Amino acid sequence: xxxxLLLLPFGLMALLSSCSSVLIPEPxxxxxxxxxxxxxxxxxxxxxxxxxxxxxxxxxxxxxxxEREEEKFxxxxxxxxxxxxxxxxxxxxxxxxxxxxxxxxxxxxFKTDDSGNLIAWPADVDRFGKAVNDGELxxxxxxxxxxxxxxxxxxxxxxLRFLTQNPDGVxxxxxxxxxxxx
Length: 182
Description:
43% strand, alpha+beta, 4 helices
């Protein structure tokens, strides 16, 4: 598993590709609704880089994260989809690794604040790990010395049901904050 600065540092990416993460087999939705597109589209600042989010006319989201590393600019690309339900908004994001798009998607919750900042919380590996162990969700738990990765196998209907039944226990409480350029 690649551990780029991302999580976009997150810089969206960083957020999601931290050492511990929850991966889902497909995006929560295939296209993002226009209201969410408007909220997400633009250039966001994170630590030492910037993330550009754009959508096609059909609502497919693309992200690009650029940073300066070892006296060269580095570009990371990815795809995203956002969905809102039960007063919460979720992202499913995947990134390009070695020239190929990842097969799985990272899961995160996000919102924007009154200042226009994007606040994102990666999925809580402890809560999702418990759900897998208790049989609430199908998946595989991979633990190493420094990280845990939960690869969910459940379909979106089961995942959305779980998110609805656990509105306060899904995202970690350590958010990543991105500032939007005007």
